[in-house]
Every structure is written in C-alpha cells, then in structure tokens.
Amino acid sequence: MNQDILFRNNVTVKGSGAQSLLFAPGFGCDQSVWKTVSKSFEDDYQVILLDYVGTGNSDLRAYDAKKYSSLDGYAQDVLDVCSALNLKDTIFVGHSVGSMIGMLASLRHPDYFSKLIMLGPSPCYLNMPPDYYGGFEKQDLLGLIDMMEKNYIGWATVFAATVLNNPDRPELKDELEERFCSTDPIIARQFAEATFFADNRKDLSKVTAPSLILQCSEDIIAPDAVGQYLHQHLPYSTLTKMKATGHCPHMSHPTETIDCIRHYLQENTLGGIQRDKGTMLNG
C-alpha cells in the first residue's frame, strides 16, 4: 500500500538528515520546479518531493475528478505520503496553492508538521470587498477558465508570463509554459477551478504550526495585501518581503529563496510554537 502511494505521487526522497523537508509545487507544476532550492538542503535534511496526481510523473490512473474537485483531495494525498514515509514534525514547503494544500493537511494531522513555509500563498484569490482584496474579480477568473477550455496553449503562454513577471528571463517563461502544456488540459482546468475558487480564510485561525510567509515583490497572483492578510490572521506567522519579483521565486530567484528559508529555520531551531508574530523585511 505504501509503495502504491509513493508511486501514485512519484515521491522522491533524497538527503540523509534527521529532519524532513517536504516540498510541494504550485498549480500546474511538478517537483522539478524545486530542483535548485531542494538540492541545497540535501546535506542537512531528508528532502522529499512529490507530484500531484495529474501532473509530472504521477500515476494518471489514480486521477479522480470528484476527489480532486477541491484542495481537500490534494491535502489527503500529502497526508498519505506522510503516513507512507512515517513522517513526524516535517517542515512543509509549499508554493502558491501548495501552501494552502499543506495548511489543510496540517489541520487534519498536526503531528506530521512542525512548520509551514509558504511561497506566494493566497487563501482566496477573489476580491471580497470591503474586507478582503485577493487580486481578482470573479469575471477575471471565469475568463481564465474559459480561455483554458477554448485555447489551452494560448492560455499557457499568457499565464506563464503573467505568473513569472520576469520579462527579462524568457527561458523561465518557456520552462513554465512547457510544464503547463505537459498537463492534460481537462485535469489542469479542474485543478484551476479548485485553486482559484477556493476560500480558505476561515481555516487560518485554526493553524497551530508556526509559519513563514514569503511575499514576493510585484506578485500579480498573490499581491502584498494578501501577504499582509495572511500574517494578520495566521497565528505564529512570520512575514518576509522578498526582493524577488513575480510569483515563482524558487525558479527566478532561488538563492534568495534558499537564504530566506535557511534564515527562518536557523531562527526557529528550538521548535514548538512561536508565540510572537514577527515581520522581517529583507532589503
């Protein structure tokens, strides 16, 4: 059964440290997006990488449209992987929607997780005036889903450039676009609906694991207001404003991403619950 789970999510385990670091990708991506960042931790940690069912080299036969119609299905897969590897007090590192998937998993099984590290997280992408600014109107997101249905390749080109927001790095845009295009368009659209129409704001106050919020500069997908909202509503959270621009700092600015994660882990080596909210501004 454990081998089935590890095969299903194409789980990779590297490194030999006593503490585990579990890396989860964002929407439309697989574990390879972490290649530079995760490698730098292999000497000190047990590094675990996975693909969501429907992406990368996961087992496509395991895809269930009903299960993965919400982020809960993906969170359950993360818990399955933790159980299969007998993990405890793992440091979860998630990008974008991967952050919320890890957060939901931590609410169901807190013992599996000691810390949550979130790159460009958002609990809700929709604007909910007057109290919440997520960055998108509902019509924007419906248009995005519609474009995915009608012209998936065209959507992938536009969305990759929007997400990265690093016009001087065309090779990164091409790399991300290629990842989007390698995913089945139907599965990608269903994942997009589960991602962009989720609202996990009510879950934030229940989180017990200390968390690091890495807020990028000029992030169209998760703007500054979202990072501030998360910091205000996530207990035991630390907010770090990065110099990195765009929504994928692990791809565009891996060195800064590594440094931010290492700094946080070194500052929080004693474990337990960090009771004072802290804000650290880099640069």
The SSE order reads: HEEHEHEHEHHHHEHEHHE
> What oligomeric state best describes the polypeptide chains here?
single chain
Give a short account of the largest sheet. Answer: 8 strands, mixed
Query: In angstroms, what is the radius of gyration?
Result: 17 Å
Instruction: Please name the CATH topology.
Output: Rossmann fold
Q: Which class do the helix and strand fractions yield? A: alpha/beta
Shape: globular
How far do the termini sit from each other?
48 Å
Q: How many beta strands in the DSSP annotation?
A: 8
pLDDT below 50 for ≥5 consecutive residues: which ranges?
270-283
The CATH class is identified as Alpha Beta
Number of domains: 1
Average pLDDT value?
Answer: 92
Task: Give the helix tally.
Answer: 11
Record the strand order, biggest sheet: 1-3-2-4-5-6-7-8
Helix content: 40-55%
Task: Give a brief description.
Helix content is 41%, strand content 16%.
Overall description:
- It is a single chain.
- β6 (about 210-215), α9 and β7 form a beta-alpha-beta unit.
- The protein is about 40% helix and about 15% strand.
- It has a single domain (about 1-125, about 200-280), classed as Rossmann fold, CATH 3.40.50.1820.
- The chain has about 280 residues and is α/β, with parallel strands linked by helices.
- The protein has 11 helices and 8 strands.
- It has an 8-stranded mixed beta sheet, sandwiched between helices.
- α1 packs across α3 (about 70-85) and α6 crosses α7 (about 170-180).
